[in-house]
Amino acid sequence: MAIWNALIRTHHITSRKKVAKLKQAASAQAVFVLLRSGGSPGIMYVEGSKDGVEDWVGVVQRLRYKDYQLASKPAATSLEHSIPSEARDVGFFETESVKDFGHQMQQRGVFAWWRKAMGYASDDQRL
């Protein structure tokens, strides 16, 4: 099965009511979701099956977050390094720091992709 992912940026993620809906959708779609909540910027990463990722992104769009940006549309991903299948967990996780978010992207094998999607790196820049 191909792994799909997407990245969403927003102004911030503070509404616990919206976060609860995102968590519920992650469970319903059986996807991995990582949220950077609390302050600005709000970052959402989703990974899973094609349908799961696309459906979860649809839920986020319907919640009408301020400054919603689909930084990287749902697409099949290529990993920077192999990840054991047991590490490809599903579920809903939150962090309050961009640094920790980046660390978790590194562990999932999508750090360079994440940096580019966030605008931190370009194609010709070495990481």
Description:
There is one protein chain. The protein is of the alpha+beta class and 127 residues long. The chain has a single domain, classed as Alpha-Beta Plaits (2-Layer Sandwich). Helix content is 35%, strand content 25%. It is built from four helices and five strands; from the N terminus they run βαββαββαα. The protein has helices at 16-29, 50-62, 98-107, 111-118, and strands at 4-10, 32-36, 42-48, 69-76, 91-95. A five-stranded mixed sheet has the order 4-1-3-2-5, with helices on both faces. Strand 2 (32-36) and strand 3 form a beta hairpin. The model has no long low-confidence stretch (mean pLDDT 90).
Strand content: 25-35%
Give the H and E element order.
Answer: EHEEHEEHH
Summing up helix and strand content along with how strands pair, one would put the structural category as alpha+beta
Quickly count the helices.
Answer: 4
What strand line-up does the widest sheet have? 4-1-3-2-5
Number of E-state strands = 5
Task: Provide the CATH topology.
Answer: Alpha-Beta Plaits
Query: Tell me about the biggest sheet?
Result: 5 strands, mixed
CA(first)-CA(last) distance: 28 Å
Uncertain regions spanning at least 5 consecutive residues? none
Question: What best-fitting shape do the alpha-carbon axes yield?
Answer: globular
